[in-house]
Design brief:
globular; 4-stranded mixed beta sheet; alpha/beta; 16 strands; 11 helices; binds 5-S-methyl-1-O-phosphono-5-thio-D-ribulose; 7-stranded mixed beta sheet
């Protein structure tokens, strides 16, 4: 299953808000609809958002009325602004938009046909790099998993969230193929239930023994020594290794430290933001209060109650045992390990223009 695809000049994606009850594929040739789909979490997960945004820019510059390189650059810039305002935390979005902008700029002396061809090539490259990164993350990460392990994971980090087999989830599926996984505890992941709806659905398809828990059950499980390792994804990793991921991740890291359980973060290097020194600088998205007060469109909270709804939290690097990337397993000190990756400057995020 592919989360987002470029097919014959259109973008096709699975509407993740309707899973697992309905498998609805949407198709569009309007980049603003892709921006809307990202905002509404029809397309979600840091790497998948980056890939979708790159494809969306192709839609933005397809207009037959664009005749000059200058006009194309302007259209691209407008679309980059719209897309960069969809979700602030996942840095893969900005990394992908910047890469596309750079390609456009470096071919601005040519013609629209040439620029479009290079943009398509770059978008496909962003997608393909993620497929390969997921595969390697799975391989590197599975080597850390002992036979007979029970893994605890949070949110959704699988094929739905990436262009490939996933990040944290690729480690789980790879280790499962090596017969190392006894069970996977999946946090339901309030408020939008990415664990209950998406991760359980994906892992069951892989034939993995899945046990769904409420988010507040994790501490009790670790106290009973029933968790061998926690593996989570990331939306943005600062230069010092501080990691933003789905809200609730920090609590898991604190619990893991208390119970001496290894806490692994899995992410492609496109999620590392060298321009962000530490976690305190990571912008944390605030979501609509209805996502907390309502479940399945039905109000569950008292009328008049106030809501605080950050979509993400930040785990300090001191609580992370290792960060698994396609380039290998990073161990503390993360600042040195990340600097040692020698990431290109195109992987430094820049916000909206
Ligand atoms: O709000 P979401 O569902 O987009 O949040 C997703 C996560 O927090 C994932 O853990 C993260 O993007 C990594 S996905 C490989």
């Amino acid at each position: 299953m592919t989360s987002v695809e470029w097919v014959a000049g259109k973008i096709r994606f699975i509407d993740q808000t309707r899973l697992p009850c309905e498998e609805v594929i949407e198709e569009t040739s309007d980049y603003t609809e892709v921006a809307d789909a990202i905002k509404k979490l029809k397309i979600r997960g840091a790497p998948a958002i980056g890939v979708a945004a790159a494809f969306a820019l192709l839609l933005a510059v397809e207009d037959k009325r664009i005749l000059s390189a200058k006009d194309l650059e302007e259209e691209l810039s407008t679309a980059i602004n719209v897309l960069s305002q969809t979700r602030p935390t996942a840095v893969n979005l900005f990394t992908a938009l910047n890469r596309m902008r750079r390609v456009c700029q470096s071919f601005s002396h040519t013609d629209v046909v040439t620029i479009r061809l290079h943009l398509i090539e770059e978008a496909r490259c962003i997608q393909q790099e993620d497929v390969e990164a997921c595969r390697k993350i799975g391989e590197h990460g599975a080597a850390l998993i002992a036979p007979g392990s029970s893994i605890l994971t949070h949110c959704n980090t699988g094929a739905l969230a990436t262009a490939g087999e996933g990040t944290a989830q690729s480690i789980i599926t790879t280790a499962a193929r090596q017969n190392k996984i006894v069970r996977v505890f999946v946090d339901e992941t309030r408020p939008l239930f990415q664990g209950a709806r998406l991760t359980s659905w994906e892992l069951i398809k892989h034939g993995i023994n899945v046990v769904l828990i409420t988010d507040s059950t994790a501490g009790y499980l670790m106290q009973q020594r029933r968790v061998s390792a926690v593996i989570v994804g990331a939306d943005r990793i600062a230069a010092n290794g501080d990691t933003a991921n789905k809200v609730g991740t920090y609590s898991l890291a604190v619990l893991a430290e208390r119970h001496a359980v290894p806490f692994y973060v899995a992410a492609p290097t496109s999620t590392i933001d060298l321009g962000t020194e530490s976690g305190s600088q990571i912008p944390v998205e605030q979501r609509n209060e209805e996502e907390v007060t309502h479940v399945g469109g039905k109000r569950i909270a008292a009328e008049g109650v106030k809501v605080y709804a950050p979509a993400f939290d930040v785990t300090p690097n001191q609580l992370i045992t290792a960060i698994v990337t396609e380039a290998g397993v990073l161990k503390p000190s993360f600042r040195e390990a990340i600097a040692g990756l020698r990431l290109q400057s195109s992987q430094q995020a820049v916000g909206p223009t």
